[in-house]
Protein backbone atom coordinates (compact mmCIF):
# COMPACT_ATOMS: atom_id res chain seq x y z
CA UNK A 1 0.00 0.00 0.00
CA UNK A 2 1.34 3.42 -0.90
CA UNK A 3 1.48 6.25 1.53
CA UNK A 4 -0.29 9.48 0.73
CA UNK A 5 1.81 12.61 0.64
CA UNK A 6 1.31 14.91 3.62
CA UNK A 7 -1.33 17.57 3.18
CA UNK A 8 0.00 21.06 2.74
CA UNK A 9 -1.45 23.49 5.20
CA UNK A 10 -1.93 27.05 4.14
CA UNK A 11 -1.28 28.91 7.38
CA UNK A 12 -2.71 32.16 6.01
CA UNK A 13 -6.08 30.49 5.38
CA UNK A 14 -6.05 28.94 8.84
CA UNK A 15 -5.20 32.29 10.43
CA UNK A 16 -7.95 34.02 8.46
CA UNK A 17 -10.48 31.42 9.60
CA UNK A 18 -9.38 31.68 13.22
CA UNK A 19 -9.51 35.48 13.20
CA UNK A 20 -12.97 35.41 11.64
CA UNK A 21 -14.20 32.99 14.32
CA UNK A 22 -12.65 35.08 17.08
CA UNK A 23 -14.35 38.20 15.72
CA UNK A 24 -17.72 36.42 15.71
CA UNK A 25 -17.23 35.22 19.29
CA UNK A 26 -16.26 38.72 20.42
CA UNK A 27 -19.57 39.91 18.94
CA UNK A 28 -21.35 37.11 20.83
CA UNK A 29 -19.74 38.16 24.12
CA UNK A 30 -20.79 41.77 23.40
CA UNK A 31 -24.34 40.49 22.87
CA UNK A 32 -24.18 38.60 26.16
CA UNK A 33 -23.23 41.88 27.84
CA UNK A 34 -26.48 43.36 26.53
CA UNK A 35 -28.35 40.37 27.96
CA UNK A 36 -26.52 40.94 31.26
CA UNK A 37 -27.67 44.57 31.31
CA UNK A 38 -31.24 43.40 30.72
CA UNK A 39 -30.94 40.91 33.58
CA UNK A 40 -29.54 43.63 35.82
CA UNK A 41 -32.46 45.96 35.04
CA UNK A 42 -34.95 43.15 35.67
CA UNK A 43 -33.25 42.22 38.96
CA UNK A 44 -33.18 45.85 40.08
CA UNK A 45 -36.86 46.38 39.32
CA UNK A 46 -37.93 43.15 41.02
CA UNK A 47 -35.78 43.72 44.07
CA UNK A 48 -36.94 47.26 44.68
CA UNK A 49 -40.60 46.52 43.95
CA UNK A 50 -40.62 43.56 46.34
CA UNK A 51 -38.27 44.87 49.02
CA UNK A 52 -39.83 48.33 48.96
CA UNK A 53 -43.35 46.96 49.48
CA UNK A 54 -44.46 47.85 53.04
CA UNK A 55 -46.88 44.88 53.14
CA UNK A 56 -43.95 42.45 53.25
CA UNK A 57 -42.42 44.11 56.30
CA UNK A 58 -45.50 44.56 58.49
CA UNK A 59 -45.22 41.04 60.01
CA UNK A 60 -41.44 41.20 60.49
CA UNK A 61 -39.91 41.99 63.88
CA UNK A 62 -37.19 44.34 62.70
CA UNK A 63 -39.20 46.14 60.06
CA UNK A 64 -37.87 47.18 56.69
CA UNK A 65 -34.17 47.69 56.12
CA UNK A 66 -32.88 51.25 56.40
CA UNK A 67 -32.92 53.52 53.36
CA UNK A 68 -29.12 53.45 53.23
CA UNK A 69 -29.34 49.74 52.41
CA UNK A 70 -31.20 50.53 49.19
CA UNK A 71 -28.91 53.48 48.41
CA UNK A 72 -25.86 51.22 48.55
CA UNK A 73 -27.52 48.70 46.25
CA UNK A 74 -28.30 51.42 43.69
CA UNK A 75 -24.57 52.13 43.45
CA UNK A 76 -23.80 48.42 43.17
CA UNK A 77 -26.25 48.10 40.28
CA UNK A 78 -24.77 51.16 38.57
CA UNK A 79 -21.25 49.79 38.96
CA UNK A 80 -22.21 46.38 37.56
CA UNK A 81 -24.10 48.03 34.71
CA UNK A 82 -21.01 50.09 33.91
CA UNK A 83 -18.91 46.92 33.81
CA UNK A 84 -21.38 45.27 31.43
CA UNK A 85 -21.44 48.33 29.16
CA UNK A 86 -17.64 48.65 29.15
CA UNK A 87 -17.14 44.94 28.48
CA UNK A 88 -19.71 44.97 25.69
CA UNK A 89 -18.24 48.03 23.97
CA UNK A 90 -14.66 46.74 24.28
CA UNK A 91 -15.61 43.33 22.85
CA UNK A 92 -17.57 44.94 20.03
CA UNK A 93 -14.58 47.10 19.11
CA UNK A 94 -12.21 44.15 19.43
CA UNK A 95 -14.42 42.06 17.15
CA UNK A 96 -14.39 44.80 14.52
CA UNK A 97 -10.63 45.20 14.85
CA UNK A 98 -10.07 41.45 14.54
CA UNK A 99 -12.24 41.32 11.44
CA UNK A 100 -10.28 44.18 9.84
CA UNK A 101 -6.89 43.07 11.23
CA UNK A 102 -6.24 46.33 13.00
CA UNK A 103 -5.13 47.26 16.52
CA UNK A 104 -3.71 43.91 17.55
CA UNK A 105 -2.53 45.28 20.89
CA UNK A 106 -6.06 46.49 21.73
CA UNK A 107 -7.44 43.00 21.03
CA UNK A 108 -4.70 41.48 23.20
CA UNK A 109 -5.65 43.77 26.09
CA UNK A 110 -9.35 42.98 25.69
CA UNK A 111 -8.48 39.28 25.58
CA UNK A 112 -6.65 39.64 28.88
CA UNK A 113 -9.67 41.37 30.42
CA UNK A 114 -11.99 38.71 28.99
CA UNK A 115 -10.05 36.09 30.92
CA UNK A 116 -11.66 37.51 34.08
CA UNK A 117 -15.18 36.76 32.78
CA UNK A 118 -15.61 33.12 33.71
CA UNK A 119 -16.42 30.81 31.83
CA UNK A 120 -17.07 32.11 28.29
CA UNK A 121 -14.81 35.14 28.48
CA UNK A 122 -11.98 33.01 29.86
CA UNK A 123 -12.17 30.60 26.93
CA UNK A 124 -12.43 33.43 24.41
CA UNK A 125 -9.58 35.35 26.04
CA UNK A 126 -7.23 32.37 26.08
CA UNK A 127 -7.93 31.43 22.46
CA UNK A 128 -7.58 35.06 21.37
CA UNK A 129 -4.22 35.30 23.10
CA UNK A 130 -3.06 32.05 21.50
CA UNK A 131 -4.07 33.09 17.99
CA UNK A 132 -2.83 36.68 18.20
CA UNK A 133 0.58 35.61 19.54
CA UNK A 134 1.33 33.47 16.49
CA UNK A 135 4.10 34.84 14.31
CA UNK A 136 2.04 34.29 11.17
CA UNK A 137 -0.84 36.35 12.57
CA UNK A 138 1.52 39.05 13.83
CA UNK A 139 2.92 39.38 10.31
CA UNK A 140 -0.56 39.73 8.77
CA UNK A 141 -1.36 42.81 10.88
Structural summary, described in words:
This protein has 141 residues and is an all-alpha fold. The protein has one domain. It has helices at residues 11-51, 54-57, 67-100, 104-114, 120-132, 135-140. α1 runs antiparallel to α3 (67-100), α1 (11-51) runs antiparallel to α5 (120-132) and α3 (67-100) runs antiparallel to α4. The mean pLDDT is 91.
Concise structural overview:
The chain has 141 residues and is an all-alpha fold. It is built from six helices and no strands. The chain has one domain.
Throw out a few tags for this protein.
141 residues; mainly alpha; 6 helices; elongated
Alpha carbon gyration radius: 23 Å
Biggest sheet architecture: none
Count of domains: 1
User: What is the helix content?
Assistant: over 70%
- How confident is the prediction overall: mean pLDDT? 91
Low-confidence stretches: none
What overall geometry do the principal axes of the alpha carbons give? Answer: elongated
Helical segment count: 6
**What sequence of helices (H) and strands (E) makes up the elements?**
HHHHHH
Oligomer: single chain
Residues in β-strands, percent: under 5%
Kindly state the number of beta strands.
0
Q: Give the termini separation.
A: 44 Å
Please state the structural category: mainly alpha
